[in-house]
User: Fold this.
Amino acid sequence: MTVTVRPFRRSDARDVCDVRRRALPYAIATPQSVAWEVAEAPAARQLRVFVAETAGRVVGAAKTFVRHDSSTPGQGVVAPLVDPDHLGRGIGSALLAAAEDHVAGLGATRLHAYAQDDSRSPAFAERRGYRRLRQGHYLRLDLARAALPPLPGTLPPGVELRTAADFGADPRPLFEADAEATADEPDELTVDAMTYEDWIVQFWEHPDTDLDLTTVVTVDGEVAAFSVARTDGQGRYGSQGTGTRRAHRGRGLAKLAKAASLRRARDAGCTEAFTANDAANAPMLAINTAFGYRRFAGDWHCVRDVAGTDA
Assistant:
């Protein structure tokens, strides 16, 4: 079997989306968003997508880029995926090599990868010099049957529930809340230098972001908490991020935002909900467990220092 690795073409979007859905059944992906992520990526991100073909069929893909939105320089990400029916044939190795060459050529000194918590992927990563650092959990909720907690009949004084669509004229307050919450997330790769312009492209304008289901809690008119929703038009809902600004933590506002978003999603016809949490993020894991989410899969955040650097 001959495997060919080549750069992504827009006509590959549907095939790459299918690979992502099969390899990561909890991921929200659409052909539109696959093509859009490549076409609209900020120049500083240096994003490249490679595809692997055999017998004219796309059987794998790899996304790779530098984390220009981190204050720590030299951080690269490599994310190879292989169709589950084609594992063990050297496809992942070929894709990983292409991804590593790309980001190493841009000066990355540390490579970040995410190995699925299964019987193969961690060993695959370790054989290639990666070491495991943190574990992540992916959780699923049967939204059609879930007994979601009721929303309060009366909100505390000054508290309002809104949607992201309400901020269409000026989404900057949402950016500021998201940036603050993201910088505080437990992770080995801190994202603390995202610009408003990049956020607009990567999040606000992302084709899968559902502004009507993304819920925002305001306190005295200021954004205090949020829960970002993505949907794929096939009944699947994904939480892209839920957070609270530092000054408003400890009041249950993130839980309120997510509960409202999930209820809106069910009313809109979504039947499955997925979310992801770092294993050390106890507060958010507790919220999701209370909603009825259960662990569906997991991964390991792995890193490899590029040979010949001081990293």
